[in-house]
Specification:
By secondary structure, the protein is of the alpha/beta class. The chain is 44% helix and 10% strand. The protein contains 17 helices and 10 strands. α6 links the parallel β6 and β7. α2 crosses α3. Bound molecules: adenosine-5'-triphosphate and magnesium ion. Adenosine-5'-triphosphate (ATP) binds next to α3 and α11.
Length: 367
């Protein structure tokens, strides 16, 4: 699927440009702000709930700025332990720690003349905050293991967080001086439920992207399911919407998707033909299923390996398959796609399930 690579949750990645979709007034205002702030070099702090599109906004700013010809580099400050993050940002010199076989430039150096996007800045440790502050004050890169100050680099810093930094400051978990350095311009991206007008536009856009895959039957979303999607609260914002649409594209059986094609979480909130499940503790199977369907891990690399290494039981494997069949309404080919398997692996997948007595009968899942 074309979008997969761009969504993979790696800690550091060069981003491809996603257009900022949305027709609401809030989005129009945001676009104007972006245009305005792209002209300057001032540091920007972008806030907003998880999945609202903070990184997309940062990319748009970079693209419209004079730095567009240079790199846009995103660094997830929550994704790495402190020492690795330090080396990731500032680089290191050979021999500075075990495994440092050669000098390595940091993202701030690679981003020279471009933009460096520091995502989840609220998760940085106080020591890292200190190092970042020193860099922001001097522009000088202190590589890990270097005796003296290094090269001066010119990067534009855009930081983002879904945390309330003022609360973190009050708790002593975030440096106030760093906050004022970063918060020269503040942009807030509103949650999706506060700009519902954007929902149908986003749905159509992503459906179009995902259904370019030849295996997809679905072409459009019917009126009723669209109105349910528009009413839904989207706690995971646009990221959740993208996931839901991808799953409809994979599991939908007709050209026009119906209410039945909507995932349970969306229908439950709307009370359409679905009784909320009793609250229960999350199981290992739930977590594995989430890794497959939301984090796009392949069945082979996550479930299969764990099962073969006896890290999970046959019961758990069966439970994962059961969940897949439920979502795919008993169609094993769709289960294979949900689990990110290549078409040519379908037989191997079924053989594996059969051999380990995990090929559940599909009939009960057909409506
Ligand atoms: N307005 C938008 N137009 C198009 N795609 C969007 C928009 N907003 C968000 N997305 C998509 O939603 C997903 C999440 O966006 P993004 O990574 O920018 O969110 P975020 O606010 O940085 O989330 P987090 O707080 O979890 O880091 C991405 O796949 C992105 O392409
Ligand atoms: Mg982000």
């Amino acid at each position: 699927m074309a979008l997969r690579g761009a969504f993979a949750g790696r800690s550091v990645r060069k981003s491809t440009q996603t257009p900022l979709i949305g027709t609401s007034r809030q989005m129009a205002d945001l676009r104007q702000e972006i245009e305005r702030v792209a002209r300057s070099d001032a540091k920007i702090l972008i806030t907003g709930e998880s999945g609202v599109g903070k990184e997309v906004v940062a990319q748009c700013i970079h693209q419209q700025s004079a730095r567009a010809g240079a790199a846009f580099i995103a660094v997830n400050c929550a994704g790495l332990p402190e020492t690795l993050l330090e080396s990731e940002l500032f680089g290191h010199v050979r021999g500075s720690f075990t495994g440092a076989y050669r000098d390595k430039p940091g993202k701030l150096e690679i981003g020279h003349e471009g933009t460096v996007f520091l995502d989840e800045i609220g998760e940085m440790t106080l020591r890292m905050q200190g190092l970042l502050l020193r860099f922001l004050e001097t522009g000088e890169l202190q590589k890990v293991g270097a005796d003296s100050g290094g090269r001066i680099v010119n990067v534009r810093i855009i930081a983002a967080t879904n945390r309330n930094l003022r609360d973190l400051i009050a708790q002593g978990a975030f440096r106030e001086d760093l906050f004022y350095r970063l918060n020269v311009i503040h942009l807030e991206v509103p949650p999706l439920r506060e700009r519902r007008e954007d929902i149908p536009v986003l749905v159509d856009y992503f459906l179009d992207q995902f259904t370019q895959d030849s295996g997809c039957v679905v072409r459009t979303i019917g009126t009723e399911p669209m109105s349910i999607l528009t009413r839904y609260n989207w706690p995971g914002n646009v990221r959740q919407l993208v996931n839901v649409i991808e799953r409809i594209a994979i599991t939908g059986r007709d050209q026009v998707a119906t209410v039945d094609d909507l995932p349970a979480e969306v229908r439950v909130q709307d009370g359409v033909g679905f009784r909320p499940k009793r609250e229960r503790r999350r199981t290992v199977a739930d977590d594995l299923y989430k890794r497959l369907t939301e984090e796009h891990e392949s069945f082979w690399s996550c479930v299969y390996t764990l099962y073969m290494d006896r890290e999970i039981t046959r019961g758990t494997l069966r439970e994962v398959i059961r969940k897949g069949l439920e979502e795919a309404r008993g169609n094993y080919r769709i289960v294979a796609r949900l689990f990110n398997l290549e078409a040519r692996d379908y037989k191997r997948f079924l053989n594996f399930l059969r051999k380990h007595d995990c090929q559940l009968p599909f009939k009960e899942f057909r409506q």
